[in-house]
Amino acid sequence: xxxxFELGDQYAxxxxxxxxxxxxxxxxxxxxxxxxxxxxKHKETIAGISMAxxxxxxxxxxxxxxxxxxxxxxxxRASAEN
Length: 82
Hints:
88% of the residues lie in helices and 0% in strands.
């Protein structure tokens, strides 16, 4: 497992936001395909689980984005004052 995590870290270091956008679109498309293949009686359960995973992962991702925005603004103000 350690090797896979190291590979993931190296991939992230060598990637741009465009690479991550493509990765997210790919994963979204895969999720849609899986969702269309689910039996109708399971679709509501799958939708509920998917929504929960989305919320649990979206909050920390957006928290990081807002921290970066606040830090950048703070640094911009500090450099403007100097």
